[in-house]
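Let us work through a complete example step by step.
Step 1: write down the sequence.
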Amino acid sequence: MLLLLLLGMSFAPESMGQFNRRSIKKNNKRIANFTGKKHFGREHVYSGVGFSLSAMNYYGDLSPLPSKFSTDISFTKPAIGISFFHRFGPRYTLIGQFMYGTLKGSDAESAKKSGNETENFRQIRNLSFRNRIQELSLVAVFDLFENEGTYISRVKWTPYAFVGIAVFHHNPQAQAPNTYLDGTPNPKAGQWVDLQPLGTEGQQAGTSTLLQGDVNYGIKPYSLIQAAIPFGAGARFRLNEVFDLWADIGFRYTFTDYLDDVSKNYVDVTRFSNPLAQAMSYRSNEIPNPGLPTNPVTINGQTVQIINGYGSEFPSNNRGNKKNNDIYMVTSIKLTYILGATFHRAKFR
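Step 2: predict the structure and record it as C-alpha cells.
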C-alpha cells in the first residue's frame, strides 16, 4: 500500500500539468469565440479604414440604347477610393469615402448599327465624351446578419445593402476635331477640351446668342459640382481578426443630365460666336457620306452643308433626352482594416 501511494504521488504533478494545459487551451478557445452580451454595447463599437478598386459605367444620352438600363461595357473605366468606417450597431455601419474615376461614352462606338431610327440617330449625332469624377460620399450600411459581439467575434460573412448621399465634381470633355466647320484648321485638334465653358447647347452668353423663341432660350450653364444618391448591395467577408473584404455593386442617381454634356436641343450653328463651341456642338459633319438631306448655311463666308435635324434650331431637333438624368454605376472590391484592434489572450500564472 505504501509503495502504491508513493507511485501515485510521483505521477500527480505531471497529470495535473496536463490537465491545466488542456484547461488553458479550452479557456482561450472560449474567449476567442466569445460573442459577448446579447446587446450591442459601447464596448462593441469599432472603426476602420479601407481601400477600394472599382469599375465605373455610364448610363445616359450616349448609351447604346435609349434606356435607363443601357450601358456600354467596353467603356468600363477604373476608379480608386479610400474610406473610413464606423460600426455603431449590430447591423449598422457608416462609411465616408473619397473616390476618383472616369466615365466615358461615344455614339460612334456604342450606338448599334441597324434600321432602327433611334439607333441611326445616335450614329449620325456622333458625339462623345469623357468625364473624370471626384466623389465624396457618406453611406449607411445595413447588414443582414447581426454582429452582437466584439470585432473579434464578428460574423464570418453577411450580405448588406447601402444608401446615402454624395457630392461630386465632374468636368465633361471631348476630343476636338481637326478643322472648324468652315474648314479652317483647329489649333486644338485631337486635344481633350472642356465642354462646359463652351456652352454647346447655348448655355454660355460669351460663345453663343440665342433668340427669344428658340427652344433652348434661357438655358443656364450647368454646375460642375453636383449631388447624387448612392445605393446598392453587396457582401462582406471576414478574412481574419482585423481585415474584411467587401464586394458590392451600386448606382449613383444624379441630379444632372450633363455628365455627357448632352441634354436638350440643337442650336443653330450660326448662333455660335466661338468656332470651337460651334465645332463641338455639331459633329455630324465628320460622318463620311451619310446620304441624308442637308441645308446650306454660311459660316465665315463659306457655305457649309448641315444635315437636316442636326445642328439647327427646331422644336423636334433633339440633341439629347432632357427627361432623364444621367446615372453611373460603381462595382467595387474593398479591403478594410480595423483601427486600434487588440486581442489579449488570457494569462495564467
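Step 3: interpret the result. Residues 45 and 88 are 5 Å apart (CA to CA).
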